Amino acid sequence: MRSTDSEIVGYLRVVQILDSLPALVGYVDLDLRIVYANKLIEEWYQRPLSELVGMQLKTLFSAEHYQTVETLLRQVLDGTEVNEEREIQYPDGETRQVNLNYIPDRSNGQVLGYFFLVQDVTERNRAQEALRAINTDLDRRIGDATGELAHRNQELSKENRAREESEERYRIVSELMSDLIYVYDVDASGEMRLIWHTGRLSQEFGPGINASDFRFWRPITHKDDLHILDQRIKTLLSNKSSIDEFRVIDAAGNIRWLRIYGRPQFDRALERVTRITVAAQDITEAREAQDALDQQRTRLHHALNSMSDGFMLFDAEHRLVEFNQQVVQMFPQSGQAIEKGQTFRDIIVRSVSTGEVISNEVAPERWIEERLSSFPNIDQVQDIELSGGRWIRSTDRETVDGGVVSIRTDITDGKRSEAQRQKNEAELAHVLRRASMGEMASALAHELSQPLAVIVNYANGLLRRLDTDQHSPADLTTVLAQIRDAGERSKEIISHVRDFVSRRQPPSQKESLQEIVQDVNQLLHSLINQHNVRTEMRFPDGGAEVLVSRIEIEQVVFNLLKNSIDSFALSGTESPLIQVFVNPINNRFYEVLVKDNGPGIDHSIVDDIFKPYVTNKLTGLGMGLSISQTIIEGHGGRLSLVDTDEPGCCFRFTLLRFQHE
Amino acid sequence: MNDSPHCVHIIDDDDSVRASTRFLVESVDLVGMEYASADAFLEAYSDRGPGCIILDLRMPGLSGLEALDVMRQQSILEPIIIITGHGDVPVAVRALKQGVFDFLEKPCNDNILIETINQAINFDLSERKAREKRQSIHAALGSLTPREEEVLNLLITGKSNRQVAEHFSLSSKTIERHRSSIMRKLDASSFAQLVRIAALRIE
């Protein structure tokens, strides 16, 4: 095999490089004879290269070493690369760490020998070991530093706490400066010793307080409150703050209320309470005021709870301010949840959603909305049916400050005898109607007297002329025509009377309030003229349609107008005036106001005017207003006397609007 | 009393009632005058000799009771018959207190109405006569001389001629002469009559 110069140069350079490596590098053939070894191997084995080349490994290696690598040699000659670290005994007897790397030399699938590279990794491993040690050391140091930091933090927060505590103490002290502050030391046996005190209380309570006794207040404490003091010392010694209120008797013999703030100081080292700071405050006045208030509240509660009706007071925002137990009992399912501060809506929604209140024909949501939109319902009572078969009547009144008093009355018994009641009421209404019919009939009779007088006068006049032969055919014609006219007029009036009388039990139907008022006005026409009464009427555009029994409402209007006219006659009112105003008040009701400028209602009977047999008049049964109220309430409205500053009186009644649906 | 037609003033706001009342009263030889209101009456009134007034209390304008006051103030002296609806008792009482002649409820029986009207007219006739007489006496009293008046004043206190003569330091004869002159002027036939006439002066 011939080598060129350049190949030789390249070979030499490789040898140079290999010789300079800090590793054992060489080539071994299949017979395990050394083919090449670098400089380090020469140094390692202390033999020249010439001697090494061709030498059997078995010869070169010690028997021990050969044994350890024999399996590796077989492995690499089988064609598997070996790369592992081993501890080997050096010829100088030193044990070193080496990295063995045997690379098989293959040619055409056959292994011809192997290259080996053995590196001493002892130093490297040592460096790594050192680094690990340093790291560990560093970790430890960091750990230490962190611990220190945590420790310092802890210290800091302890300081903070202490500062907070002292601030709290300071706050209490400054709050109570005007009263009394004192401090006890506590020794290991739990003995307490007063070390200082200040403030005016000691002066005020005088010789009763013995400053050397830790039972500072005991001699002057109200006997019923002594147990509070005992409990208090236990609490403080177990390292808990305490606030206590108790009664003492001062030098003048008066009972005073004290509030005492106690704060123990705990010594962690000694693990016990070592000091107790106490601040005492005279709260007699506050306490008395509180007691008075409590008493008043209790009294109010007793009063409210002793009512047979349920009571709820709402503020202007319809929030519940006060209520009594009767409300809770009336609504056994939803009542328990009633609390102050809830809105009317909360309460209604709950009573419906629990199924306690039955909304009947309408959907529950609709029922709730209607209930809320008509709250407070000043004009009408509302009867509510409960699932338990009971009936509750709701009545609302407005308070002066815009709140609402809502009363609940159990009307179950009333409802149960509904049939009987209705029957009685119908009978009563019949009797009352006949009574007021009498009044109306007398007004009609008066109307009728006019044309009758005409007829009688003409007829008699004519008879007299016939007797004395004074008559002429012209007279006859004129007179008979006059008599006929008067007769026609009578017929009209009588047909009106029939209208009034024949409708005995008229059903409610759509009627115009305007027509009703004007009809009654017409009926009273001559009475109104006689007293020179001026009338003023005002109706909403489109008439005011209501669902009523016409004859009954006519009676009410008749009674009210007649009362006004009678009061004018009685008092001789100057320029008497009656005003009738009909106004819509919401989408459900019209109100009718009947005002006059007469003498008004006598104060002595103003509260009783709606009762039967109470009257302002010299003549009269005192039934008119009573009947009228029965009629209006039977229609679902209310009739009331309106309080006005103007002279005269003003009645107001409400009627359900006719609903177009 | 049928000598000349007496006048009935009818005050009523109802046209047909008023006309029929007039028809009725004119059938018994009376004259009816119609007024639609008290105001209209007060404006149109003139004295038509003996008669009476029929007043319906139910009327607009000046109320019936006020009308009574005004009539008296204006020296309308015919007796007044009030006609009213039933049962107005308080008003009736007040009207009677104000001196109305009578008070009838409507509708009233024609006989009673005419009878009442006749009574009222008779009353008015005698009232008018009495008034005339009072007026003539007042005129006669006015014709007495001052001395005659003085003498009369003493005589009606019951003093004799002699006492009166002494009082004025005159002779009894002179007083006697005054006395016959007074009797003649006052048309008194006796001393008793003289006293009665003199009493009218005081009214």
CATH class of the largest domain in chain A: Alpha Beta
β-strand amount of chain A: 15-25%
Sheet of most strands of chain B: 5 strands, parallel
Q: How many strands, which pairing sense, and closed or not: the largest β-sheet of chain A?
A: 6 strands, antiparallel
Q: Give the full name of the CATH homologous superfamily of the largest domain in chain B.
A: Response regulator
Shape of chain A: elongated
Q: What is the tally of beta strands of chain B?
A: 5
* Whole-number mean pLDDT of chain A: 79
Reported by name, the CATH topology of the largest domain in chain B is Rossmann fold
Q: Which shape of chain B, going by the Cα principal axes?
A: elongated
Q: What is the C-alpha radius of gyration of chain A, as a whole number of Å?
A: 59 Å
Q: What is the CATH H-level superfamily of the largest domain in chain A?
A: Histidine kinase-like ATPase, C-terminal domain
Low-confidence stretches of chain A: none
Concise description?
The complex is a heterodimer of chains A (661) and B (203). Chain A is of the alpha+beta class and 661 residues long. Chain A has 19 helices and 23 strands.
Give a description of the structure:
The complex is a heterodimer of chains A (661) and B (203). Chain A is α+β, with helices and mostly antiparallel strands and 661 residues long. Chain A folds into five domains: 5-120, Beta-Lactamase; 177-289, PAS domain (Beta-Lactamase, 2-Layer Sandwich), CATH 3.30.450.20; 307-408, Beta-Lactamase, CATH 3.30.450.20; 417-505, Helix Hairpins (Orthogonal Bundle), CATH 1.10.287; 506-661, Heat Shock Protein 90, CATH 3.30.565.10. Chain A contains 19 helices and 23 strands. In chain A, the strands form five sheets. Chain A has a six-stranded antiparallel β-sheet. Chain A is elongated and about 200 Å long. Chain A starts with a helix and ends in a 5-residue tail after the last strand. The model of chain A has no long low-confidence stretch (mean pLDDT 79). Chain B is α/β, with parallel strands linked by helices. Chain B has two domains: 7-131, Response regulator (Rossmann fold, 3-Layer(aba) Sandwich); 143-202, Winged helix-like DNA-binding domain superfamily/Winged helix DNA-binding domain (Arc Repressor Mutant, subunit A), CATH 1.10.10. Chain B is built from nine helices and five strands. Chain B has a five-stranded parallel β-sheet, with helices on both faces. In chain B, β3 (51-56), α3 and β4 (80-84) form a beta-alpha-beta unit. In chain B, α5 (110-142) packs across α9, α6 (146-155) crosses α8 (172-185) and α7 (161-168) packs across α8 (172-185). The longest helix of chain B has 33 residues, at 110-142. The radius of gyration of chain B is 24 Å and the shape is elongated. The mean pLDDT of chain B is 83. The interface between A and B is medium-sized, with 34 and 29 residues.
